[in-house]
Amino acid sequence: MSNWLLKRIGQSILTVVVVFHLTFVLVRLMPSDPVQAMFTQMMADNPDNPEQARQLVELYVSINPQDPLYIQYIDYMSALFQGDLGYSMAENTSVNQVLAEAVPWTIFYMSVAMAITFVMSICIGAIMAYYEGTKFDTAMTVVAVVESSTPYYVVALLLLFGFSYQLGWFPTSARYPGGATIGLNSEFILGAFYHATLPILSMVVTGAAASLEMRGNSISVLGSDHIRVARLRGLPPMRIALRYVMRNALLPLYTGLLLLVGFMIGGSIVLEEIFNYRGMGWYMFEGVNNRDYPLMVGGFMVICFTVVIMMFIADLTYSKIDPRAKASGDNMEVYGSSAGVPLRTQLKRYIKRLTNSSNEPRADGGTAPHALFGDDTVDQVSRKEVMYRKFDRSVYAPVKIVLSDWRGLVGTILTMSFIFMGVFGPRFTHSPTATFDSWVSPLDGNLAHPLGTSNTGIDILSLIVNGTTPVLIMVAVGAVVTVTLGVAVGTAAGFRGGALDRALMTICDIVVSIPGLPLIIVIAAIIEPRHPAMIGVVLSVAAWGGLGRAIRSEVLKVRSQEYVEASRAMGVGTVAIVIKDILPNIWPYILINLANHGRNIIFSSVALYYLGFLPRSTQNWGVLLDQAESSNALYSLGQVHYILAPMFVIILFSMGLILIAQALDRISNPRIRARHAKSVDDDEPK
After folding, report:
1. pLDDT number for residue 471
2. DSSP secondary-structure letter at 363?
3. What does the alpha-carbon distance between residue 660 and residue 405 come to, in Å, rounded to a whole number?
4. Half-sphere exposure of 333 (CA within 13 A, CB side)
5. Pairwise CA distance, residues 248 & 322, whole Å
6. Exposed, middle or buried by CB within 10 Å (0-12, 13-18, 19+), for 131?
7. ∠ at Cα 277 (144, 90), nearest 5°?
8. How many angstroms separate the CA atoms of 626 and 633, rounded?
């Protein structure tokens, strides 16, 4: 057995042990100490029989509330290692039995959705790449951007409104027809697919945005020699796109899509509540609402186990599928990343020019040889000119490159519009407590209420505008905290290496293995955060692990460059090297992740407010979405504007951040930066 396989098995076991301990801590930290609360309630119901009350509590959580804490810890861990997840108070049966019945249903529709998403993404992405620049490519790119900007629960609500409440084509609840006999018969199987159609479509529509990543991978494959040979042989374009391009470009997507199973199961909490589909997510939602701690923690455990297993399978099979992948731990290569290329190249040439004896122009504008060690000074170039060149290289050039792309321009306009709306908008709209006529439709042409009014007569535009500021705070704080943690951990691990690297990457693997949404739900139930900034911090708890590992890979590529070695040889301190040499070369990648994690914060926060897992201390888009559904806005065309308004702004804000992230990727393209540098030189007077 290889060292790599032993290492992965060890990491998986360690992750499982950490999850076991985490569940015990969560049980003890739940509000009002659930163990003691249950014991008190049982004593109140059975005041004459304290022994029966103790036995009931021990049945529920496998803990004797009268034992010392360390004894409770041993009992709880022993029960978990034996597979005993406790007894559900709400369902009046064991958690094992509840989850054994629910998990197959969740895996059923999630697996179908993932398979369809995978096939669609690789096929559409390969064809888009082959016909790059055509109308088909442009149209599908726009569609993919819209899909990636739309949360899956928004698509679920729209499908529910259109196909269930309006057309009546699909059911709004249940997992199979009521009169069907459970078994391998056509009525039951077709009925199960029929009831799962809308949940599957919700995941497929939003998951098909992975075709953009497939398109990017395929474009890089199109320049390979074997593609040129295929074209010279006169093979049909469709065959080249699907057989030669697709096969080589789908490998980088394999791991991500396999890991998507675990995270999709984590997101099933929202999806199954919307469709009233009794899978694992639905029971976990009920456990949180009813404070059924054994059921809630049991669902959390199963989701974590699923992610750990999927990560292990992904790592085990990827090296078999792609022989280029190196599974040697510290030397792991990440394919498809281009962060750090342009600035690294510039600084490499800068060092070369400063230390050679040629008379070629220097990066700072001088022309004399040995400028770093000789008698020549930089007096030939004014300080103003030097500052201008630095500003052009570090600020003006990236901004011009981003805004020269339609994606960057549109994304910047959308994002800045929401920032201005959140900061200045409340001054120019109605008070969010002022009431007018109920159910005014935007189709009525009432300019005083362009988005209409709610069932209580409140102007919807004022609700949207006043709910923007808390969303902006959550997005800003959550994205900054996530990126800061990921960059700090990844930089320290990649630059220092050794034992610190192994320890930090193990922590990152553990964080990645714990699905974010279920963990945030449990943490929110414990601390009940109310301020938007605090909610942003909570949402970042489980989001930085993957970024930390990605940043480490970028740092490993930069730290071996000549200019970093030169700084070390000159005795420059570690902190100075990291700040001046490492981070400037990966900042495009950092900015891309800042925008992407901002989008993720929007999705998570709105979902948690919509489900009621976060305290309603502020009026925001998630609260508005829940209020709209509670007022039955999904059931009538005349009222649907109430729920469409928050959906629309969620999609627009997310789209702005996604477009900015895609445009920022152009900064790391050396050919684009070279064209800009050439245009600047041509504009300068001779």
Report:
1. 93
2. T
3. 10
4. 9
5. 9
6. middle
7. 135
8. 10
Residue pair 147/233 in contact by the 8 Å Cβ criterion? no
| Paired tokens of 594 | 């800042």
Coil, strand, or helix at residue 93? strand
- Assigned token pair, 223: 């320049």
Taking the C-alpha atoms of residue 230 and residue 628, their distance in angstroms, rounded to an integer, is 56
pLDDT of residue 228: 76
Q: At residue 655, what are phi and psi to the nearest 5 degrees?
A: -65, -40
**Tokens standing for residue 613:** 């897992």
User: What is the 3-class SS of 450-494, one letter each residue?
Assistant: CCCECCCCEEHHHHHHHCHHHHHHHHHHHHHHHHHHHHHHHHHHH
Q: What is the pTM assigned to this prediction?
A: 0.78
Burial of 222 (C-beta count, 10 Å sphere; 0-12/13-18/19+): buried
Scanning the structure block, which residue is given the tokens 């770093």?
372
Q: For Cα atoms 285, 101, 79, give the angle at the middle one, nearest 5 degrees.
A: 80
Taking alpha carbons only, the member of 231, 225, 258 closest to residue 111 is: 258
The secondary structure of residue 573, as a DSSP letter, is -
The confidence score (pLDDT) of residue 369 equals: 42
pLDDT > 50? residue 231: yes
Beta strands in 342-485 (DSSP E): none
Within a 10 A sphere around the Cβ of 124, how many other Cβ atoms?
A: 20
Q: How confident is the model at residue 464 (pLDDT cuts 50, 70, 90)?
A: very high
Task: Please report, to the nearest 10 degrees, the dihedral formed by the alpha carbons of residues 563, 567, 569, 574 taken in order.
Answer: -130
